[in-house]
Structure formats: C-alpha cells, structure tokens
Design brief:
This protein is an all-alpha fold and 167 residues long. Helix content is 60%, strand content 0%.
Length: 167
C-alpha cells in the first residue's frame, strides 16, 4: 500500500487558491455561463457595479425577463379577455379583472425587484466590452440609445475591460 505524501503547505496553498478563484470568480466574467449559473450570479451580484459580465451571463437574464414578461402579459391578456363582456346597457366592460390585476401586480413586483440588478448587470457587461458603465445612460435616448446599447451588448469581451476588475 502506497501512501501519498502531501506537502505541509498544501492546505494553505489550497485555501489561498480557493480564495483567489472565489475572488476572481466574483469580478471576472463567467464565459459560457449556464442559465442556472447566470441567474444565480445575477441575484448574488444584486448591486455590484464593478467587475465584468460575459455575453452569456447577460443574454440568459434577458431571455429570463423576456419569458417572464411574455408569459405574464399573455396570461393577463387572456384573463382579461375571458372576463370581459357586454354590460346590460350594451357597452363593453373595460374594468380590469382580478386575475389580470394580480398578474399585473406580480409583473410590477418582478420589475421593481430586478431593476437594480439589471442595471448593474448592464454596467458590468459594458465593462467587459471595455467601456465605462456610464454608457448605460444611452438607454435614456429614445430609439437610437436602445439600439446602440443592443449593439454594445453584442460585442465580444475586450481585454481592456480588466481595468474595471476590483483588485
């Protein structure tokens, strides 16, 4: 039976390597992120405006939000249509149904809960491209600002973005 010898400083080296990888994992982009990893990191870095985010991190969250708003909007619309009707006086009932109101409230809560992490994710994505996070304010410019941000979010990582990593 052979015994493996472990150097005495192995444990401290392992602890240091783990701390370094955890630190690096926090500030560097996560290339080829899975949907679960991207969502976990999105909520874990709720209000972190330094560091970088990869394209996959960003686009998985965009897909998640699109699905949540799409399904929620479709359900609210379907609920509203099925409960709409004609009043006794011949007019169309335009009141919001309880179901559509509840779904709308859920979507509002989802929006409020995700606005800050979405902005921070956008800033980190711009950092990964090598740009300042202040470019996120381009989204306030009607039409052209959103198109410009869309193109910037599509760009690949730029090594110049490392300057935004916390050291």
């Amino acid at each position: 039976m052979t015994h493996l010898s472990v150097p005495r400083d192995y444990a401290s080296t392992l602890v240091q390597a783990t701390a370094d990888s955890t630190l690096l994992g926090t500030y560097t982009p996560l290339p080829d992120a899975s949907p679960v990893a991207a969502i976990r990191r999105y909520f874990r870095k709720y209000a972190v405006f330094f560091g970088r985010a990869s394209r996959s991190e960003y686009w998985w969250i965009v897909l998640l939000s699109t699905v949540v708003y799409g399904v929620g909007g479709a359900l609210a619309g379907a609920t509203q249509i099925t409960t709409a009707g004609v009043s006794h006086f011949g007019g169309v009932i335009t009141e919001v149904s309880i179901g559509a109101g509840l779904i709308g409230t859920f979507l509002l809560v989802y929006f409020l809960a995700t606005i800050l992490p979405t902005i921070s994710l956008s800033v980190r994505r711009l950092h990964d491209v090598g740009l300042s996070g202040w470019f996120v304010f381009l989204g306030l410019v009607p039409i052209l600002g959103s198109i410009t941000l869309f193109v910037l979010f599509l760009l690949s990582s730029n090594p110049a973005g490392q300057r935004f990593d916390k050291r």
